[in-house]
Structures are given as C-alpha cells and as structure tokens.
Amino acid sequence: MKYSIIDFLTLVGALGFFLYGMKVMSEALQKVAGDKMRTILAKMTSNPVKGVLTGVLITGIIQSSSATTVMVVSFVNAGLLNLIESIGVIMGANIGTTVTAWLISLLGFKINISIISLPLIGIGFPLLFSKKNKRRFWGEFIIGFAMLFLGLDFLKGSVPDIKSHPEIFSFLANYTSHGVWSFLLFLGIGTVLTMIIQSSSATMALTLVMCNNGWISFDIAAAMVLGENIGTTITANLAAAVANVSAKRAARAHLIFNLLGVFWVSFFFPFFLKLIAAFLIKSGGNSPFEDPHAIPVALSIFHTGFNITNTLIFIWFTKFIALIVTKIVPQGEDTEEYRLQYIQSGLLSTSELSIHQAKKEILVYAKRVEKMFGMVEEMFNETNEKKFYKLYDKIEKYEGISDRMEVEIASYLTKISEGELSHLGSKRIKAQLTIVSELESVADCCYNLAKTLLRKKDGKIWFDQNLRENIQKMMSLVSESILEMQKNLDHGYTKINIEHANVLESKINNYRDRLKKDHLQGIEKQEYSYKTGVIYSDLFSECEKCADYVINVSEAVEEINKD
Known about the structure:
Blueprint lengths: L4 H39 L4 H15 L2 H14 L4 H14 L1 H11 L5 H14 L5 H26 L7 H11 L3 H18 L2 H13 L5 H14 L1 H7 L5 H23 L1 H14 L12 H20 L3 H11 L22 H31 L3 H33 L5 H36 L6 H27 L7 H26 L5 H31 L3
Helix pairs in contact: 1-2, 1-7, 2-4, 3-4, 3-12, 3-13, 4-13, 4-15, 4-16, 5-10, 5-15, 6-7, 9-11, 10-11, 11-13, 11-15, 12-13, 13-15, 13-16, 17-18, 17-19, 17-20, 18-19, 19-22, 20-21, 20-22, 21-22
C-alpha cells in the first residue's frame, strides 16, 4: 500500500479541521447562552434526576460533554454544586454527547452537507463584523457548524477506501479475530485516541468514517466507542488537577461512572450488538454485521443505548459513587470546602436569627481574606519558583471565591432587609452590607499585590535588602491591622474599642508617606532602576490601600453601637 507521510498528515489535518470546527461551534453557543446555562446548571440540580436532565440539555446544546464536565468541575470548585448534584449532571452529559454521533450518522453520511458548508460560511462571515455581540457569536456558530462538516468531508476523503486498498483490511484482520483480546485492544485504542485528541466527538467521527469505509467491523467499532467513554473523562480530571478536593472528587466520579458502565456492558457485549442488529433489520434496514454503510446508525444506537442504560442503572447509586470517590480523594488537612458554611438556603424563622447566621458567615469570609493576605506575604518571601506560582494560582482562586461570597452574602442580607426589622436590626444589616463590600475590596487588593509580585518575578526585578525590609515591615503592619479587624468582628455587635485599629491605620499611612518620600529621592539618586521603582511603589501603595478597607470594616462595626 502506498500511504505516504503526506497522506497521513492530510488525515491528521482533516481531523484537526473537524475538531476546530466543533470547538468554534461549541464556544460560540456557550457565549450565546453561557449565562443562562450557568443559571440552569446552578439551579436545576436539586436531585439526581434533574441533574441528569440538565446535563443532557446543556451537552446537547453546546455539543461537548468535555465542556460540560469541565464547567461542572469549576462549579464544584466554586461551591455552586455539591458532589451528589455534580454526579447527576455528569451522567446527563454522557447522554447529551451522543447527539454528535447522530448528527454525523444522519447528515454526514446520508447528505453531502459539505456542498452547503461554503454558503453557510458566506452567511456567517458578515455576522462576525456586527457590533452586537449576540450576532457575532451566531456568526461564529454558523462558521463552526460549516467547518465541522467540511472537516468530516475531508476525513472521508483522506481515509483510504477499502476497495482500493484491501491490504488495510488484511492488516486489521490480524487483530480483529481474537475474541476478548480484540475487544480489549480496541477498547484501549479508543481510550488512548480520545485522551490524545481530547474530544470523544472527534474520535467518534473518526470511528464512524473508518466503519463507513469498511476498515473495521461493527463489534470492533463498538469496543472503540466504549474506550472513548473512558478517554473523555481525562479532560475533567486534568481540569480538576489544580482544583480543590470537591472538584477532584467530581472528576473521579466521572471516571468511575464510565468505568463501571464499560465493566458491566462487557459481559453483555455480544447480546447487546445482536439486539441492535435485529432492531435495524426489523426496521427495514440492513444488518451492521453485513453492510458497512449500516454501521454508523447502528453505532449511534449503541452509543445512545449504552449511555442511557448506564445512567438508568447508576442514578440510584450516586451516593455510593460519592462514597467511593470520598475514600479515593480524602480531605486534606490544608484543604477547604469552598462553600458557604452557615448560609444554606432560605431565611430562618426570625430576622434576628438570620442576621446572626449572616454574621457567622462574614466571620468565615474575614478569615479567608486574612489567609489570602498571609499567602501574599509568603509569595513575597518565596524563592522556590514552583511554590511561588502555586501560591499565585491559589490567591487567584481565592479572589474568585471572594467575589462569589460577597454576592451571596449581600443577596442574603437584602432578602432579610425586605422583612420587618427593628431599628437596631436595620443598622446591623447596613453595617454587614458595608463589611462584605470592604472585605471583597481587601481580597481585590491581595490579588493586585499577587499580580504585582508576578510582574516582579516575570520581569526578573530584584530588590536590595533595604527595599525588601521596607515592604516586609509594611506587610507586617497591614497583617496586624487585619488581625485587629478580626478581633472587632469577633466582638460582634457589642461595644468595641477601635483605638488600636486607628493607631495602626495612622502608622501605616505615615509609613507609606515616608516610603513615598524616600522612593522619590531614591529614583533621583538612581539607587535603583525606574522599573524596579514602579514595582516597589505599587507594592507599598497597594498595602496602604488594603489597610484603608480594613479600617472601614472596624468603623462599620462601631457604627452599629452609635445612637
């Protein structure tokens, strides 16, 4: 067989074109309805059945189970979904991803849709220049859809025809007649291909083309499909590698669910395939064991039937799967569950109890912010590059969590304020709203400091001993003021003395003024470069700004007790 490196690269290019088309289409749809899908995902998961339906709906829309599972992992990481809820959505995502196989089977091989692909690009292209985002995103979707089927057409053309190259079949025949070993071999090939390509839809398209061209038989293709179900779990596990314990558990649940499904179907594999063949013959079609052109539809039925049956079986065992992954990924000592601890759902029987619940959540929020600033101090003194970047990633994650906490606590306080409140209760709500806003600003400052330190690192900017000591002293003063803020929050709504907090605030302001003056003199005397000076000035100025937000928290607590 004459199959050159150019032919192979053409095949890889066709696959890449198909994959890129799917990526453009999927991302465009997420942009069009992203916020709505996030709302659906966050709200419609109160039980496993709703979770499954939500997973089917979203994956069917965005045409990517990987995108759905990665979204689920990120939502678990942020605390919007718990482990049980996430398992239901993941099960639904497996069913939703079968839509792609049906599109390819019913349109890709039956209709030459590539003929209208270029006119579709002609429709979508002008929309890319629209000033309205939604039109632009629809333009991207149309172009992505056209590229998807152009890629499929290229795939069909780049895979050698079995009639022209019968030696391909004789080569594959050596590995297709070994019973269980052939099943395991092609299961592994499907898994590895999906892991490499990072898209079960693209691997499915390649499998369908190979079937249509007579390369592989129905049973071998079905084994590859099962492998693709395992391979697709890798994306979510990669996304969870840098996430918290809950997100890692959700990703492992995806892997275990798919592994268990492949395990049980292996015992009924020949019966399952014969059942599908009998159904097709009864429906007036040909047997996929005899006609290669009947395999794509038969494979789509197998893919859908397997995922639906698997979900119907294991939906009753979501708690058991959760228990397994909890054992596999234990709670580490330094790991936190990124969920609100005291505000769960609904208001308590009285407004005063609800205010107390909010107060406890604010204390948790303040401790998280304190920990965040501690990470900034660690980052400043860290010499190990790997640990430095790990601290930055953690601060960035905490900043996102901080934003969400502010919104959720403030929304809860707003609901309380709609009820009947005493004068003191109203003052407490007002103070708490101020406090959560200021705490979020402190978290923003921590993130800004981390970004400045990252600029320092990436720019290879070095501080001499004097500059380092100055920043360390400033950070130490801010850290002390945060601890004082914590004390005032712990006292709650009793009389507090913020004299020490005010003293610290004055110290920080005076020290900032002194550093600013010395810094200008240092630049004039060229004691360090202007580039170094910018980073240095940004650090001490941001620290002082952070302290301003910190004192505002103590002042808000004191305000409650004023007549």
